[in-house]
Hints:
Layout: H1 11-28, E1 32-35, E2 45-48, E3 54-63, E4 66-71, E5 82-89, E6 96-101, E7 112-115, E8 127-132, H2 137-140, H3 145-157
Parallel strand pairs: 3-5
Antiparallel strand pairs: 1-2, 2-3, 4-8, 5-6, 7-8
Amino acid sequence: MPNFNWExxxxxxxxxxxxxxxxxxxxxxGCDVYTSEVDDHGVDFVIKDSNNRxxxxxxxxxxxxxxxxxxxxxxxxxxxxxxxxxxxxNQDAHPELYLIPNVAWLAPNELFVDRDYDKPGQKSKPxxxxxxxxxxxxxxxxYRFDTMIQSFILRQSEGTN
Length: 161
């Protein structure tokens, strides 16, 4: 039986677990998973589907709720076939898994955040983020992994990108 006591994992351990979990989920749907030795471009792994289409995957993990982000320099909205796989870890439960295409940030809202930090005195690099809260949870539901992967696979079998 898996251990669902997520509080005992530090930030790096939780992130590593999330990445392995995401890889196994993609593999369970028949995708080939390719991992790079160095994660210096924000891509955690690449998948290839049964129609030989490659997609870049970035993985983020969060406990319960809060904010996660990707630097714009490593999460380009013009990159085709780039996805965020988000794992939401709630104590004593399997992680909730979401698959979000990069183009979701083209229309920022309460959930999808676009921050440039271009005002004087702001030192953070430009980023895209997710505000995970009870209030925004309904906006996130559309991107549940089991739903998104089905449409992803269907789109692949039809031969469209």
